[in-house]
Structures are given as structure tokens and as C-alpha cells.
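Progress against Task 2.4 (sequence-to-structure conversion) is shown through the following example record, which the project officer requested during the mid-term review.
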Amino acid sequence: QVQLVESGGGLVQAGGSLRLSCAASGSIFSINAMGWYRQAPGKQRELVATITRGGTTTYADFVKGRFTTSRDNAKRTVYLQMNSLKPEDTAVYYCQFNIWAIGFNHGMDYWGKGTSVTVSS
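C-alpha cells generated for the chain above:
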């Protein structure tokens, strides 16, 4: 069984920073791409950032220059450093990994349960 657990959310003032983490555990053969999504109240979930196994990153336009994602393959962990936070960044942030679990012959997408980020003005 594979699990993803996020941490690092909380309440921060506008202009502040937070660092989110997401770690995978379980019977894992390999982890391919990792990503961060967010969902604000009343809105659809949207992609924030992705990072490939080799470290290539992509970002949504609304976070470029402010957020940075990185990964530690040995720790099966992805990070999201969020700087210059704005009230509109308030959302539940979810990690998503494409994982090839032991006993399977292809990768599958797994999701964390989310961590809440609130940015006050």
C-alpha cells in the first residue's frame, strides 16, 4: 500500500513564506513525476508545479518566480518552497506522485490528503 503525507501548511501573513513537504511510503518500486496542486474554496483544483525524476520543473504562471519545487529521491519526498505569498494563494495544497508500486506493471497516480495554507492580508 502506498501513502503520501503532506506537511508544512499553516497560517502566514502576506509576503511571508512556507515550505511544504510530501513524503511517500509503502511498497514502492520507483517514483516518476511529482506534482503539487491546490484547491481554493469554491474553485476547481489546479496545477501548481511539477518535477520529473530527473529534476526538470514546470510552474503555473501564477506562481512563477515565487514558488520553487524540489525533490529528494532517496527520501521519496517533494518540497514546495512558497515565497512572497499572497492572499489568493490560500488553498488546500495536494501532492501527487506517479508511482510504480511493487506488484504492478505500470505507474499510477497517488494523492496526498492535502495541507491547508492560509495567507492573511
